[in-house]
Amino acid sequence: MRHRSIALVAILWASVLATSAQNVPELFDRPGGLVPDERTAIAVAEAILFPIYGEKHIRDQRPYVVKHAQGKWTIEGSLPSGFVVGGTFHIVIRQRDAQILEIGHGA
Predict the structure, then answer these.
(1) Is 79 in contact with 62 (CB distance < 8 Å)?
(2) Mean pLDDT per 10-residue run, the chain (107 residues)?
């Protein structure tokens, strides 16, 4: 699964780089932008978060809380029931171009 997420990010970046400078606005302005749906937002988030916090640590925070508003995807982890120390991750991804606007881990 990790390789699939990393591959998705690599494909997105390859698409951006392969597109001429004249076509970049068209790429970003297509319906849904580069991150058109929840599934893509989660894949991008995991590809960014796994190397930083560890794949197991992030996956243990499922189910993720995913919200879409004002052209941004906000994804946060959920704490398992019971006492857990450490908090959850938080990431905000711009829908249009997949730019990471916020990233962190609450204590």
Answers:
(1) no
(2) 58 54 63 92 97 94 97 94 78 96 89
